Amino acid sequence: MKWLLALLAMALAAPAAAQAENDMLIIAHRGASGERPEHTLAAYELAIDQGADYIEPDLVATKDGVLVARHENEISGTTDVDQRPEFATRLTTKVIDGQEVTGWFTEDFTLAELRTLRARERLPDIRPQNARFDGLYQVPTLDEIVLLVRAKEAETGRTIGLYPEIKHPGYFRSIGHDLAAMLVEQLREAGYEGADAPVFIQSFEVAPLRRLDTMTDLRLVQLIEADGSSADDPPVRYADMVTDDGLADIAGYADGIGVDLRLLIEDWPNDLIERAHAAGLLIHGWTLRLEPQFLPESLRSPEMTARDADSLAMTLISELRDAGLDGVFTDHPCRLTDCYRDRIPSLPIPPVSGDER
Length: 357
What we know:
This protein is α/β, with parallel strands linked by helices. The protein contains 14 helices and 15 strands. The strands form four sheets. Strands 7-2-1-15-14-13-10-9 form an eight-stranded parallel sheet. Helix 1 (2-13) packs across helix 13 and helix 2 packs parallel to helix 5 (142-156). The longest helix has 17 residues, at 306-322.
């Protein structure tokens, strides 16, 4: 706790100190999702304009086998599908990675049907400013995201990377959609090949990454949560993955790990970054957000303001960068590229639950 108090004191002494250098990759988590509804072309374009090095589309499949960007294949929280009477009979319950989920699912919609829906903010109580954009944007395809990246590269003269995550790949393969193969083929057609291409492919599941290692030279990243197990191999605990033996095993099929920031900051300083590098792995952390309720519970206090939380988060990220963290996922790319220094939220902070990676 002493290190936390010292860091907080440093942060409050310079509440909006910009990083003098930023050699970490800035990965726009679902786009600039702190300012636009996530996984929309608007969120991706804003992230690029804010200076993000990579944009992150989470990929799922439609009924007719098209890769589209949604955080989950269940879309009631991110589209207006529940307001569309023509799709009322599509409401169903499925078992996804061992969990019962009720809602509407991308794999039950053709692309043409999905395109009639409109995106909406997933966390309107936390980000009401984003809800102003509800109804404006369609669910984008991977093809459209690549076209946007190419257009912005031509406009800006800089390389913009793609960091796709295949969502529930084991489940999708069981119903006839091989997300790994679909993604590799589509990226190859778009000209993304080889270890030097500006692409990382990520997954929480192990088997799809092992398969991908035989299919492509594009860089692969094993995602690791702070607790729990891999959905496709429950005996493989995430805690085991960050041991020396676990890291060595990952290095046999992947190029990096993407870790829950709690694994780094709740017991900081620790040697996870150093040990990942020693195993030959890059290490990226997820997810940096400005809102206080997204800080690990151990770092919050009742009197903490949004500005306090932002300053603490930025100080922690600076410490991790100095320790060698190779990249960070963020909902707010502009905060890390110093696009602004004072746009810290001052809204009430309600509780949040669910999968917030």
